[in-house]
Every structure is written in C-alpha cells, then in structure tokens.
Amino acid sequence: MGNSALKAHLETAQKTGVFQLTGKGLTEFPEDLQKLASNLRTIDLSNNKIELLPPLIGKFSFLKSLALNNNKLTALPEELCKLKKLETLHLNGNHLRQLPAGFGQLSALKTLSLSGNQLRTVPTQLSGLRHLDVVDLSKNQIQNVPDTVGELQAIELNLNQNQISQISVQISHCPRLKVLRLEENCLELSMLPQSILSDSQISLLAVEGNLFEIKKLRELDGYDKYMERFTATKKKFA
C-alpha cells in the first residue's frame, strides 16, 4: 500500500477519531499512527498480516476500541495494558498463547474476543476486570477452567469448541454470569458442577456436543431451579 493512501487514511482519522485499514496485507502496525495518539478512539486493522503489536500502542491513551482480528499475532506487549479507556478488544483468529501479565489493568474493558487463538486455559488476568460484559474464548485449546474463574465479572462467557474436560465448581460463584456456552467440548456429565444448575446466576447454559446426552442433564438435581431462571429470563426478553 502506497504512502499517499496511508496519508489519506491518517487525515480522515484525524477528523473522525477512527482509523480503519482492513484487508490490505499490512505486515506491520503503521508507525505513523502515533502522530494521532491523542485523537484516536478506534483502530481497526483486522484481516492483515501483522505479526507484532509494537510497544508504542501504549501511547494511545484515549483509545476505546481496538480490533486486530485475523492477523498473525503470537504475543501482545505489556504496553497494551496502559490503555485505561479501552472498552472493546477484538483479537479473534491470531496465534496468541497467553495474555500480558498486566492485562488486568485494562480497567474499562467491557468486551473481549479471543476466539480462534491458542490459549490453553482461561487467563487468570481476566478476574481483575470489573466491567467485563462479554468474553469470547471459543475455538482455543482450553482443557480446564481454573478456580480463579469464580472472580470473573462477565455476564457472558463463551467457551465453545475447546477441549474442556474439567470445570472448577467456583464458576457457580461468578456474581454476574448469566450466559455460559460450553458447546462442543469434552465434558462428561459427572464433570459438570451441579451447582451451576442449583446455585448460580446462570440462566442460559449451552452444553450441546459434549460426551453426554442433553436429556441426562434434565435428570440432575438442580435442573428445576435452572429452568426457573431460564424461563424468567426468557419472559423478560420476550
């Protein structure tokens, strides 16, 4: 892509606060963007070939939304964690194995999409994020859901299409969790904590495509309580 095209995009971004350059075969994050570090509210560089997010990302202190779907990122810099106003982060379809240690400092984060990466566990850093609404960790290589999940503040947690065979009973203690998606994993019915049914806030539990028949779920203690929540929620949205 020529410099003149990039320049035109930068000029538009200066006026709108939005820099969007998708599907252009970019191999690196445009360094010229830092000239707009105080202007930009939204950056979308999805569908490129970016392998590295440079430390200068930490300068975009007013950024509210960052999308880098379908790139070639294998890691994220610690500097990303400085973005105190960031509300939406989309990183689907990369090669990420873990999140930076300071990820819990992204205190404004509401939506986090990490579908189609190489995560092996639910990152413990997520437990520190107080405003999280939706977390999408589908299509990773997650095998178990650790105790720290009990502190997760999300309303919806998507763990579809992983390799989960174990879930901590602490998931029932998530204070705001209403929607839990566990489709197409490796769960035996005995490994699904019954407290999800009897003692949680969860009103939509999606478990199709595991190692048990759905009708067996209906025989568990607590299923009636779950159905009460399910029905009450449905009425609310009907």
Automatic annotation (TrEMBL):
Pfam entry (one): LRR_1
Protein origin, superkingdom: Eukaryota
PROSITE patterns per UniProt: LRR
Keywords for the protein's UniProt record, in alphabetical order: Leucine-rich repeat, Repeat
Gene3D superfamilies xref list: Ribonuclease Inhibitor (3.80.10.10)
Entry GO CC: cytoplasm
Name of the protein in its database record: Leucine-rich repeat-containing protein 57
Lineage: Eukaryota, Metazoa, Chordata, Craniata, Vertebrata
Gene behind the chain: Lrrc57
